[in-house]
Amino acid sequence: MRDRRSSLVDGLDGGRPFPRVLGMEAAGTVLARGEDVDGLEVGDAVLGFALTGGGTYAETTVLSVLNTARIPEGLSVTVAATLPVAGTTAVDVLDQLGLPAGATVLVNGVGGGVGLAAARLAVGRELRVIGTGSTAKREHAAAIGVRFIDYTAGDVVSAARELVPDGFDGIVDLVGGASLRTAVAPLAQDPRNVIAVGDMSVPDLGGRFVERRIDRENLERFARLAIEGALSPVITAVHPLSDAPAALATVENGHTSGKVVIKVA
Fold first, then answer.
1. Are residues 115 and 193 part of one domain?
2. CATH number reported for the structural domain that contains residue 139 in this entry
3. Which of 113-117, 159-163, 238-242, 255-259 tops mean pLDDT?
4. What's the CA gap between 241 and 26, in Å, rounded?
């Protein structure tokens, strides 16, 4: 992999120093299991998280038994591979907000895997969804029912206030930094309903950090939501493992929407 560091690369497995194998999430077939593993068998199709927090950009890897679940019949391995991080995060932020039908929610950074999954889920819950992103992210967001604000085309705050003058019932922040502090957080009616996925400073603004639920029971629930269509990830590219550096570069540079999947075989 390239030596250039980024918040995305660091986030792929907890920021451990190079050299290392990247990747937190995976889906595939169980080749072997530990002696104390219950509920999973060799040959099962599963999805889950890497045992050490990283190492899934590989032909084989080791998953954490506490954070691994069977892939239910009817769900493809490709879709399942997108669920452990993006899919589960999308469900977690919306469950944490707990907004009723008809409420307004702003997804700051709607074009990525988590953003599009959260937006689709929110639309399915009959929320009014507004999302921010760059021009390239408009098409996928609009296709699932998002009112899109292009941050490259003008002032986000003014555009958001024009759409929702009284402030948003909930905000999902996937950008952090100055965007969260000076633009997005002040748009909330109640600061407690600002949920950040990446910026740990959100409590300083009165908001909350996402509460993650990645145990087997919840992974199984999220997989069922995917089968039902309530949680339907947008997959924009599938690359072979040999193209992993190029795939990661595309994501880092912001040139893709939704999820990019690396396929081993």
1. yes
2. 3.40.50.720
3. 159-163
4. 13
Domain assignment present for residue 180? The answer is yes
Whether 62 maps to a domain, the answer reads: yes
In sequence order, which residues have a C-beta less than 8 Å from that of residue 77 and are 6 or more positions away?
Answer: 27, 28, 45, 71
Are 120 and 49 within one domain? no
DSSP states of 185-242 as a string?
Answer: GGGBSSGGGEEESS-TTGGGGT-EE-----SHHHHHHHHHHHHHTSS---EEEEEEGG
What length does the chain have? 265
Confidence label for 3 from pLDDT (cuts 50, 70 and 90) = very low
- Average model confidence (pLDDT) across the chain: 89
Element at 131 (helix H, strand E): strand 128-133
pLDDT digit string, tens, across residues 116-128: 999 999 999 999 9
Residue 192 maps to a domain:
yes
Dist. CA 27–CA 191, nearest whole Å: 37
Q: How many structural domains is the chain composed of?
A: 2
Residue 233: its pLDDT value, please?
A: 83
User: The whole model's pTM is what?
Assistant: 0.86
Query: Within this chain, do residues 239 and 199 fall inside the same structural domain, yes or no?
Result: no
Residue 69 CB contacts under 8 Å (≥ 6 apart), including other chains: 46, 47, 48, 216, 219, 220, 223
Question: Structural domain of residue 257, as residue ranges?
Answer: 7-84+214-263
